[in-house]
Amino acid sequence: MSELRFKVVEEAIKRKAVCMPAPAERASEYFGMYVFNEDKMRKYLPKKTYEALFETMKHGKALSREIADSVASGMKQWAMDMGATHYTHWFQPLTGGTAEKHDAFVEYDGKGGVIEEFSGKLLIQQEPDASSFPSGGIRNTFEARGYSAWDATSPAFIVDTTLCIPTIFIAYTGEALDYKVPLLRSLQAVDRAATEVCRYFDPTVSKVYSYLGWEQEYFLVDEGLYAARPDMVLTGRTLMGHESAKNQQLEDHYFGAIPTRVMAFMKDLEYECWKLGIPAKTRHNEVAPNQFELAPIFEETNLANDHNLLLMSIMKKVARRHCFRVILHEKPFKGINGSGKHNNWSLGTDTGVNLLSPGKTPQDNLQFITFLVNVMMAVYKRNGLLKASIASATNAHRLGANEAPPAIISVFLGRQISAVLDKLASSSCDDTIEFDDKCGFRMGGIDHIPELLIDNTDRNRTSPFAFTGNRFEFRAVGSSDNCGGAMTVLNTAVADQLAEFKEAVDTRVGKGEPKEQAILSVLKAYVRESAAVHFDGNGYTDEWKEEALRRGLDCAVSVPEIIDQFVAPTHAEMFVRMGVLSSKELHARAEVKWETYTKKIQIEARVLGDLVMNHILPVASRYQGMLLDKAFKMKELFGADKFGSVAGQDMALIEKISVHMEKIQTLTEKMIEARKVANKIASERKKAIAYHDTVAVAFDEIRYHADKLEEVVDNEMWPLPKYRELLFVR
Description:
Elements: H1 2-14, H2 27-30, H3 38-44, H4 47-59, H5 65-81, E1 86-90, E2 103-104, E3 106-108, E4 114-116, H6 120-124, E5 125-126, E6 146-150, E7 157-159, E8 162-171, H7 180-198, E9 208-222, H8 223-227, H9 230-235, H10 260-275, E10 280-285, E11 291-296, E12 299-300, H11 301-321, E13 324-327, E14 341-349, H12 362-381, H13 383-390, E15 411-412, H14 415-426, E16 438-441, E17 452-455, E18 465-467, E19 472-474, H15 483-510, H16 515-529, H17 542-551, H18 559-562, H19 569-577, H20 583-646, H21 648-679, H22 684-695, H23 697-712, H24 723-728
Parallel strand pairs: 1-8, 15-18
Antiparallel strand pairs: 1-2, 3-4, 5-6, 6-8, 7-8, 9-11, 9-12, 9-13, 9-14, 10-11, 14-19, 16-17, 18-19
Family: Belongs to the glutamine synthetase family.
Pfam families: Gln-synt_C, Gln-synt_C-ter, GSIII_N
Organism: Alistipes hominis
């Protein structure tokens, strides 16, 4: 194994950048070339079909089977013109990734040959095996039937030679088995509720859209080094590894010059993104060594989520061309920053107004404050649920650390917005709401620097839910997550809160109170009620943890117990009330989350046990044997009198190795026994809790002793690539 380590290190050092040829056209000319977008629709569909499909995409109108057949015919012709030979329904099961089953266009023609066919029926509906995906008990293993159904609001696209059709995924009995169904329902819920509130200020508003801009963080590791780390291959992270002498302490990687090999990969990835209609905008080095980020232009939330899932798939393929492996695990390396996927979220009207952006008039500002305060109120009431939406075995390593949002959901507003809300809470209803969208600032002593526009809020990297001037940034979402989970909860919570707000205002107006006064009265009460979730300070401190507990915020840190929030009566009632998830669907999702947590910890425990028992201990024992042989020979050479002085260090090292080896063996055996006990528990919830409390707790202890052995065992004998190689050879 040590020979493999040095071989792959040598190969990684020799690798050169793989420069793929850039498209000859400008990005604007080939953007979306593999997407069945509006331009392709106009070209390949009859006018009547195009207009009907456009109404479906923009306004949710149902499609007839006749129109579906016409769409399918045009879509097939376009796909075949682009070289496609197969089609698939592309859906999002509760595994967290995507799934696809490819079928060829060919059908028998009855004359001994084949023809290419693709009907409306095949476009609209397909039948994947529902028993092979997590269902949380909705489907028995012998009940296989499930359906995928076309989501016409997200355009089809081509990957390689396959036409990919974004779809929902449901059970034979109709329950949602994916992330897309509840997301789409939540978007409809927030549209209805927000539109009703908007009409207090602008009666012409007919639709409100949810927008999402994700920030995808990731690590790149040379594929040879990756292959030589069984823990990375099987779990996505390093289960052991002593810190490199240099990691990120000099803060010289963030926004630094992008390494040559990495830049070649980034360029190639961007070309692929633009061809697939993914509006990749920003690329840069992240804080940790070998950590990077890609961020797109904001899009409608459903489409943005589809694009993120497609990106995560595409970037893995592109990385292989450049002899890299993309690491999306939230905490692949101990001691350095983990990876998140900040979800920048906002609401906007069909009239072009960002509801979370300050306006120019008191009326506009009242609308802005209305939505801002209601979002804060929703986060206050559902802070535990929002944490549950991003909780997982992988994200648990990242949350609460000093490079990620704490495991307590709070809202950061910034000095100016906070001052406005404080004034609102203590003011009369006649006071005008005023503040600057941006203010000017000039650098003193440097005449040629132009005026800078300063936003109305600073940024707070310790806040999991921060207002950033015209949107909220949900920073707790993990890098490997499907954004649909967090966005479903957030949009549903905001929809429910807006509906409650409208009811409260309408009640006051019905009693004769002027509309504006009624709005302000309700908002004032909300500001006071939700004050507990408003925190602009340092979320990393122990003092905040104590304060948050006193305020009544959810401070749980055990993932299995955090998942309980999905089935808590007050949250379950909200999902049912908003028509997003039924009680059966909620309980199923909780079951899936508990089961997934258990399996992730179970796999890590098995891999860790194998690594320490079959890789680390044999090497440490062999090195210790070499030291013992040396000590025996020194005793013969120098005699018993001088032996203590000349071999003291070797004997101390021999003893140290023995201590660490004994600890590893004892702790590993204890971990294995704990796993055996946990495996006998029938309840998925109780089993997950047992794995958290009795199995996962052993990981850091075992790792500590393995890392100590890495410090003392001969470098030439150590079998696994070290952190200095994984993070700095590129």
